[in-house]
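Predict the 3D structure for this chain.
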Amino acid sequence: MYLGLQTAIFLFFAGALGGALNAVAGGGSFIAFPALLFSGVAPIAANATNTVALWVGVTASSGAYRRHLDLSRRVMIPLTVTSVIGAIAGAYLLLHTPAQTFLRVLPWLMLGATLLFMFGNRLARGSGGSIAADASTSALAVASLFELIVAVYGGYFGGGVGILNLAMLAALGMTDIHAMNALKVVLGGIINGIAVITFIVAHAVVWREGSVMIVGALFGGYFGAHYAQKLPAAWIRGFVIAVGTAMTAYFFWKGYH
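Done. Predicted structure below.
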């Protein structure tokens, strides 16, 4: 069965917008996942397909941010390991448990992440810990624990995982929004990459709709990351907060309506 032209165009632009949104602030699933549902894809399959498509977009955006990524192995290794472990656990949960309970927890998680991003710098100044420079062991432990939780969530659903990672980085002392986006892209790529492998092996991906969205996400991911770096940091930070607020409201409506 072929995909209609109007549906294909709709999914292409949804993928492009989702890829661009993920490159700038996270939250691309807020666009791509409902688009797949609207196109008639079942929820679990839509979640898996959305993860595959936007992972490609995140990978495309990583090249535009590479010059901003300058962290030591001491910081990257524990964050990478916890991202892999959490993503495996989250993807397994998605494929073996119903989503209804998690959908009721999700809006509270998004609300907390948005507030943490808004006030994270103040918390960081009071804590004295930062992963932006020579991180203390305690700061790394906190970051790794938080990243494990984020990765479980990202493997399970993925919508807003970028917001959660940005919130974690802000709370732990990072202030350069472009450097934060660079690390967010790397960690998100790892989390979603593990989930992608799991979903493909489980035959949970709908490739007809997904292939169109992948092409859109490639364009949106690369160009979104490229042009985001030309904007003032305050604009990007404001956009992140706006996306987080919109996602929180949407998931409250979706989970409790």
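The CA atoms of residues 146 and 168 lie 7 Å apart.
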